[in-house]
Design a protein that fits this description.
Blueprint lengths: L22 H7 L13 H12 L10 E6 L2 H9 L10 E8 L9 H22 L3 E2 L7 H7 L6 E10 L13 H4 L17
Antiparallel strand pairs: 1-2, 2-4, 3-4
Helix pairs in contact: 1-4, 2-4
The structure holds flavin mononucleotide.
């Protein structure tokens, strides 16, 4: 594992080979997209993003989640009014929720369930990117009014709101911490390529 590697060598929009991005290119070139054109998102793209989202792994395969795909412009603007983390005006907002009703006996599930929702959202964002769209996971929003706007039942707790649209501009590259600083081989105690095993 080489230290000192910085990411961001590829632009956000990599050249798709045969119309599709390779999975590694897709992962490496995804960026948080916060500015969108007015263009809407078609049903087929939504279907593909949702398919990718629902393919995410979940703890004990509980799938303790619920999602609302909002494309009604009036509703999008209302949600945005309670979500300072959403910068531009997107044509679509995904509201990703943890479903406490799916795991009532497991005390750890609220935390673990949030992880599962986050994994699904990452799939959704990667699929969006592969389709030439862009989005951003947003935790800065007021759950109570969003819950009321969408008529969410008590067992659904919004975890993230996710604006998605056609990028209005090339998104800024985000920096990554130095790989050697955050990834070690075998144990945290050694940075060299030794086994790290106790003597
Ligand atoms: C859990 C979570 C919450 C986030 N909340 C916000 C937010 O409220 N507003 C925002 O503009 N970006 C938000 N982001 C996006 C991050 O700022 C962004 O992913 C980070 O700066 C790295 O940039 P990149 O996604 O382009 O690599 C959030 C990301 C995560 C994972």
């Amino acid at each position: 594992m080489s230290a000192g590697h910085m990411s961001d060598v590829l632009p956000h929009r990599a050249i798709p080979s045969q119309g599709r991005l390779d999975v590694f290119e897709t992962i490496r070139t995804r960026r948080a997209v916060r500015a969108y054109t007015a263009e809407t998102i078609d049903d087929e793209s939504v279907d593909r993003m949702v398919d990718a989202m629902l393919a995410a792994p979940t703890a004990s395969n509980k799938q303790a989640w619920g999602f609302v795909v909002v494309r009604n412009p009036v509703l999008v603007r209302r949600i945005r009014a309670f979500a300072p983390g959403i910068i531009g005006v997107p044509p679509l907002i995904l509201v990703a929720c943890f479903d406490s009703g799916r795991a009532p006996d497991d005390a750890r599930m609220p935390d673990v369930g949030v992880l599962c929702v986050a994994m699904a959202v990452e799939n959704f964002l990667l699929a969006a990117h592969a389709l030439g769209l862009g989005g951003c996971p947003v935790s800065s929003f007021l759950a109570k009014p969003v819950r009321a706007l969408l008529h969410l039942p008590d067992h659904l707790a919004p975890v993230l709101v996710v604006p998605v649209g056609h990028p209005a501009q090339e998104p800024r590259r985000s920096q990554r911490r130095n790989r050697g600083e955050v990834v070690r081989d075998e144990t945290w105690g050694r940075t060299a390529s030794g086994t790290g095993a106790p003597a």
